[in-house]
Amino acid sequence: MLFATHFDLTHGEGAANLTATVEDSEHRIYSCTVEWAGKVDGAEGVIAVVVSLSDDLTDVGDVMVRITHSGLTSDPMILGIGHLNGGPTP
Q1: Which of 50, 77, 78, 79 makes an SS bond possible with 36, Cβ 3.0 to 4.6 Å?
Q2: How many other C-beta atoms are found inside a 10 Å radius of the C-beta of residue 22?
């Protein structure tokens, strides 16, 4: 689960309106499935995004994750998958 700010989902928008990608240390891009997205109760302006990782992402280390909504792509978030370090830097 990822959390995003600085955008809002309008009425009727959800997972189908978002995409998520992961970039590994060799700059390969993986498309991920956005399974759910919605506003976080009690946290104004925060959107929760549930992302399912590609089966190719096992022990890749640090990766950059980006979310896209309405043509705008987020700054990268660094996450460790399997182990930490050795990945790309924004």
Answers
A1: 50
A2: 23
Exposed / middle / buried, residue 85 (Cβ in 10 Å: 0-12, 13-18, 19+):
exposed
- The closest of 83, 38, 36 to 62, measured between CA atoms, is 83
* H and E: helices and strands count for the chain: 0, 7
Cα of 4 vs its chain's centroid, Å? 9
The model carries a pTM of 0.84
Integer Cα distance of 74 and 85 in angstroms: 22
DSSP secondary structure letters along 2-39: EEE-S--PPTT-SGGGEEEEEE-TT--EEEEEEEEEEE
From CA 1, how far away is CA 76, in angstroms rounded? 15
